[in-house]
Every structure is written in C-alpha cells, then in structure tokens.
Amino acid sequence: MKQVNLFGDEFAPKESKYTAKITAPIYEPKNEKPHIMELFDNTKSLRLINEIESSEISEEEKRFLIHATYRHIRFNYTKIADYYAHCGPEMQNLIEKSGLVIIDFEKAIQYNYVKLTEELGKIYLEEYEQ
C-alpha cells in the first residue's frame, strides 16, 4: 500500500543519514586505577555552595539550593569505567546501581535505566513501521 502525503512531496520523509541500528560500545579498561578525585569535577558545585552558605536566605532554602548544585557535577565516565574495573564487587554493584556504568542489559532493566529506551523504541516503531 502506497503512503499518501497530504502536504505534498516537499514534506515527504527523506532518506536518513542516521541508522536505527544500536550497538553497545565495548570498553577496554586501562591497567591503572585512577584516583577517585579524577572521576568527577565539582568545581562549579562547590563555588555555588559557598555562595549559598554565605547568603542571608533561610536554612531551608539553603538546603534546597545546595541539593540543586549537585547537578553541576561533571563525571568523567571513562575514568569511572577504569575505576570500576579495579574495584571490589560491593563498589562495582553500587556504581552499577548509580548508573555510572551499565555492564549488562538485564541489570540495566532491573535498575530502570532501559525503560525510557523501550518507550522511545515503541514510539519509533509506531511512527515508522506503518
């Protein structure tokens, strides 16, 4: 069955230069465990916390804003993967639960990191498989 575009050919879907094929990258850890302070950069967060703490706003407002500063922490996922490779099982498990590395698909589902991807996949199939 041929699809008809009511808005004319200029609005017809074009060939995409992108692929829908998804492959997981394979990461080979380095032989050296990085120092834990190399795993993140919290410079902006600390600067904001100092400013918040020296302000005259209420303690409740300060606590809220301090929690909000944590979103400014930048993580170095390559170094985190290296660190993960040299950790004991308990730390590895906690790193996985935090979503800092995703080692296996089953755990990604278990910890709800795949749910959004599944929903986006369903929407994609509804849109493009018809």
In whole angstroms, how far apart are the ends? 10 Å
Low-confidence sequence ranges:
none
Largest sheet descriptor: 2 strands, antiparallel
Q: Tell me the quaternary state.
A: single chain
Helical amount among residues, as a percent range? Answer: 40-55%
Global mean pLDDT: 81
Strand content: under 5%
User: How would you spell out the order of helices and strands?
Assistant: EHHEHHHH
Structural class: mainly alpha
Q: Looking across the biggest beta sheet, what order are the strands in?
A: 1-2
- CA-based shape: extended
Number of strands: 2
Radius of gyration over C-alpha positions, nearest whole angstrom:
22 Å
Count of helical segments? 6
Explain what the structure shows:
- With 130 residues, the protein is mostly helical.
- It has a domain at 31-86.
- It is 46% helix and 3% strand.
- The chain has 6 helices and 2 strands, in the order βααβαααα.
- The chain has helices at 43-53, 59-69, 77-85, 89-97, 105-110, 115-128; strands at residues 40-41, 74-75.
- A two-stranded antiparallel sheet has the order 1-2.
- Helix 1 (43-53) runs antiparallel to helix 2 (59-69).
- The termini are close together.
